[in-house]
């Protein structure tokens, strides 16, 4: 599946990233809308919306994060957990 978003070409990589809501390990909820490629390095980037204001930005701001980082585990207080945990489809 491919979604055109202005000049941004977003491809959906369903084998690893499901479209939908995810919970960040710090508690915020984000909405993943697709996977895009960096124009210079071709690194896959997860494209997601923050429905609530965050880091001084308005609600419903689009963000990208390297897919490898999106899928990695983090260690918090000595406990290993997913950086983002799938919650539900949207």
3D structure, described in words:
- The chain is mostly beta strands and 90 residues long.
- The protein has one domain (2-88): DUF1653-like domain (SH3 type barrels, Roll), CATH 2.30.30.
- It has one helix at residues 67-71; strands at 2-5, 8-11, 20-24, 29-37, 44-50, 61-66, 73-76, 79-82, 84-88.
- The strands form 2 sheets. Strands 1, 2, 3, 4, 5, 6 and 9 form a 7-stranded antiparallel beta sheet that branches.
- The longest helix is centred in the C-terminal third of the chain and has 5 residues, at 67-71.
- The radius of gyration is 13 Å and the shape is globular.
- Residues 1-14 have low confidence and may be disordered.
Write the layout of secondary structure elements.
Blueprint: E1 2-5, E2 8-11, E3 20-24, E4 29-37, E5 44-50, E6 61-66, H1 67-71, E7 73-76, E8 79-82, E9 84-88
Antiparallel strand pairs: 1-2, 2-4, 3-4, 3-9, 4-5, 5-6, 7-8
Biggest sheet architecture = 7 strands, antiparallel
Instruction: Give the CATH level 1 class.
Output: Mainly Beta
> How much beta, percentage-wise?
over 45%
Helical fraction: under 10%
CATH fold assignment: SH3 type barrels
Q: What general form does the structure show? A: globular
CATH superfamily label:
DUF1653-like domain
Order of helices and strands: EEEEEEHEEE
Structural class: mainly beta
Q: Please tell me the CATH architecture by its name.
A: Roll
Ranges where pLDDT stays below 50 over 5 or more residues in a row are 1-14
Distance N to C terminus: 16 Å
* Count of separate DSSP helical elements: 1
The residue-averaged pLDDT reads 86
Query: How many structural units, i.e. domains?
Result: 1
